[in-house]
Structure formats: structure tokens, C-alpha cells
Amino acid sequence: MAKEGLSFKSVLAIALLMLIIAASTSYGFMRFFMLSNSEKVREVTIGPTYSLGDFVVNLTGSRGYQYVQASIVVEVSTDNVIDELEKRSPQIRDCIIAILRDQTVADIEEPDAQTIKNRIMASLNSLLYTGQITQVWFTQLVVQ
């Protein structure tokens, strides 16, 4: 009479083989997808920076009752730009004052104030002959 079904050793061998295959597949999946998509450590380098100073400007539509107080620092592409920024300080301050004066409270309260930063960067870059401004930071931004 022939034995029906599989023996205990056969079932154990198949289960062990399936466990090994599942573990290998899981390890391979994690290694391939998780490690390749993980954040790669990159070195962040910041170029030369220059403080444009403090600004106190009345806001649009406030009739002089609301103003913004801001301190601005810019990152520049080369050290030569810093020399040009120092020489053209009156023009640069006038440009920034005009941009800030044109803002409303809602514009200033925009998260990260990215629109204003982009306007400042574009306006200042149009004034520069050597290099460019690559980043604008508000080190202080208060609306009253």
C-alpha cells in the first residue's frame, strides 16, 4: 500500500525552504529599495554671505499704522559680489525699501516669505555686474 500525503520531514523541509526564500526576498527588497531611496548625505556648502542691514518700512494700505522691520542677509556667488554690494549700498537699500513698501501684511505673513525673497533676489541681481545673489534670508522679520 502506498503512503498517502507527505511525511513530516518533507513538510518540514518545504516549510524551511519557503522561510529561507521569504527571508532572502525581504532582505533583497529592503536592500534594493530602502537603501537606494534613503536620503543620501550631501555636503551643503554655503557661499560667501553679506548682511544688507536692518530695514523699517511702512506697509502698503496701512496708512502708516503698520510697518515691517526686517534684517536681510544674502548669499553671493563670489567674494567680488560683496565688494559690489558695498559700493552700491544706497541703490540696494532703495531697491529693498521699495519692495518691502509694496507689500501687505498678508504678503509678509506668507510661509517662508519666498515670494518676497525671490523679488529681492531678482531685483538685486538686475543691479549687479559681477556674479549674482544666490539666496536671500530674513534674519529678523517683524510686522507691527
Describe this structure in words.
- The termini are far apart.
- It contains five helices and three strands, in the order H-E-E-H-H-H-H-E.
- The protein has helices at 8-37, 79-87, 89-101, 105-108, 114-127, and strands at residues 49-58, 67-76, 133-143.
- Helix content is 49%, strand content 22%.
- It folds into two domains: 7-41; 49-143, Band 7 domain (Tetrahydropterin Synthase, Chain A).
- The protein has 144 residues and is of the alpha+beta class.
- It has a three-stranded antiparallel sheet.
- The protein is elongated, with a radius of gyration of 31 Å.
Detail the poorly predicted runs.
Answer: none
Architecture of the largest domain, according to CATH? 2-Layer Sandwich
The Cα radius of gyration reads: 31 Å
Given this structure, which CATH class of the largest domain is correct?
A: Alpha Beta
Helical element count?
5
The CATH homologous superfamily of the largest domain corresponds to Band 7 domain
The N- and C-terminal alpha carbons lie at a distance of 97 Å
As a percent range, the share of helical residues equals 40-55%
Overall pLDDT, averaged?
87
Strand order of the largest sheet: 1-2-3
